[in-house]
Design a protein that fits this description.
The complex is a heterodimer.
Chain A (H helix, E strand, L loop, with lengths): L2 E3 L4 E5 L4 E3 L2 E3 L5 E8 L6 E7 L7 E2 L2 E6 L4 E6 L8 E9 L7 E2 L3 E6 L1
Parallel strand pairs in A: 2-12
Antiparallel strand pairs in A: 1-4, 3-9, 5-6, 5-10, 7-8, 8-9, 10-11, 10-12
Chain B lengths: L3 E4 L2 E4 L5 E7 L6 E7 L5 E8 L5 E2 L8 E7 L2 E6 L8 E9 L3 E4 L3 E5 L1
Parallel strand pairs in B: 2-11
Antiparallel strand pairs in B: 1-3, 3-8, 4-5, 4-9, 5-6, 7-8, 9-10, 9-11
The chains are: A mainly beta, B mainly beta.
Chain lengths: ~120, ~110
């Protein structure tokens, strides 16, 4: 079974600085998708970024980027120029690509951006 | 973007009663919907996957007779918690899938059983 591990339960960063959240996963599959979701205090899950395993290029979305290391099964999220609105729980998630629909979530990292 | 709504956002019910939670995809047709449960300060736990017009597939350990899921149309799925007990109190989140691999999440429903 696939597992997703987020080893940092909590992190904090100063406003405008950069922070990296870690995520590792375990799978024997070669075709899969990885996601980072943000859950602010409102509890609404928001997709931050996604990465297809077959793509070597790291995904980026404005201030958010990932470092995808397929061989190491690592998928870290870098947030640049942190903003107060980035304060939230961040969940790393995995989905197999062969028609499977199930998302497997990590336990989450609580990020606090301090002014 | 794709929007998923849930109703109600909060519900309080007495022990032994049943409560229904609705999940709607507002601007797209969702062939598959998912129901998650989230305890405080924890991750999302998938309860079941439902496809329109067929029976839901429940995850191991989830009581199908207690958590009834009906995916009646391509835009509506319902979760009914039957004979609710205080331990069923939780945050329930639905998501809907469109296309190949993206899930859109609803805002969640906080259930409190007294």
């Amino acid at each position: 079974a696939q597992t997703v591990t987020q080893s940092q339960p909590e992190m904090s960063v100063q406003e405008a600085e950069t922070v990296t959240l870690s995520c590792t996963y375990d799978t024997s599959e070669s075709n899969y998708y990885l996601f980072w979701y943000k859950q602010p205090p409102s509890r609404q899950m928001i997709l931050v970024i996604r990465q297809e395993a077959y793509k070597q290029q790291n995904a980026t979305e404005n201030r958010f980027s990932v470092n995808f290391q397929k061989a190491a099964k690592s998928f870290s999220l870098k947030i640049s120029d942190s903003q107060l609105g980035d304060t939230a729980m961040y969940f790393c998630a995995f989905k197999m690509g062969r028609g499977s629909e199930k998302l497997v979530f990590g336990k989450g990292t609580k990020l606090t951006v301090n002014p | 973007g794709a929007v998923v709504s849930q109703h109600p956002s909060r519900v309080i019910c007495k022990s032994g009663t049943s409560v229904k939670i609705e999940c709607r995809s507002l601007d797209f047709q969702a062939t598959t919907m998912f129901w998650y449960r989230q305890f405080p300060k924890q991750s999302l736990m998938l309860m079941a996957t439902s496809n329109e017009g067929s029976k839901a597939t429940y995850e191991q350990g989830v009581e199908k007779d207690k958590f009834l899921i009906n995916h009646a149309s391509l835009t509506l799925s319902t979760l009914t918690v039957t004979s609710a007990h205080p331990e069923d109190s939780s945050f329930y989140i639905c998501s809907a899938r469109t296309g190949f691999d993206e899930q859109y999440f609803g805002p969640g429903t906080r259930l409190t059983v007294t």
